[in-house]
Amino acid sequence: MKHLSLWLWIVCLCIGLQSRAQSVENHADDEFRGKRIGVIGDSYVKNHKEPVAYTWHYKFAQKHGMEYFNYGRNGNSIAYSSPRWGEAIYVRYREMADSLDYVLVIAGHNDAFKLDSIGGIEPFKNKMEVLCKGLIEKYPTAKIFFFTRWTCKDFVGSDSEKVVDAMLEVCGRYSIPILDCARKGGIYAESDAFRAIYFQKSKNNTDTAHLNAKGHDRFLKVAENFIRLY
């Protein structure tokens, strides 16, 4: 029995060492490890009232050993600047760190509510073009990704749909990968039952924008698969 126990202990030790070596090897082969990632956007990025550490992009960076920069600002828009919400993203992207390897733009939610102030969908597209061209010039070697807002109730024909489609159109002109989170994100923001589980707590369950930690974990799989495509 002693010899058998010793043999089992040796086998377990060998398996453990092999598993650890494999884990180290896989981590060393991680294409993202050591890279610099900057994320700019609205409260989707700032994470509203909850810690940034709950967000899927922070978890993505931590998972892969990346240097992470967060430029989220509650109430911020791609195309609309104001004293309350600050400069629009098409202007303030310049404040982002230099020499980023990955740039994520997660926005559009607030633009849908401000189209009249922006001047309509064409001025919005013009500001989107400024942002796309600016990011390409600032980060010629980086991989740039855009993510749209979620879907919402009465999405079809709404200003939210117009903004999402405009983002898809402009990013397409500049060959920038963009995930249509409204139609392909797997986040059912129009569903009261879904939001009660995956969105941050709000009075009468009215928050249609901000994922909680569980929601971010759910979307992380979608976002990571999308980023890996490129």
Automatic annotation (TrEMBL):
The protein's name in its UniProt record: Lysophospholipase L1-like esterase
UniProt keyword annotations, A-Z: Signal
Statement: the UniProt record of this protein carries the keyword Signal: yes
Any Pfam family hit: Lipase_GDSL_2
Signal peptide feature range: 1-23
Domain of life the protein comes from: Bacteria
GO molecular function: hydrolase activity, acting on ester bonds
CDD domains reported for this sequence: SGNH_hydrolase
This protein's record includes keyword Signal: yes
SUPFAM superfamilies assigned to the protein according to its UniProt record, in alphabetical order: SGNH hydrolase
Matches recorded under InterPro entries: SGNH_hydro, SGNH_hydro_sf
Domain SGNH hydrolase-type esterase: 39-217
Organism encoding this protein: Bacteroides reticulotermitis
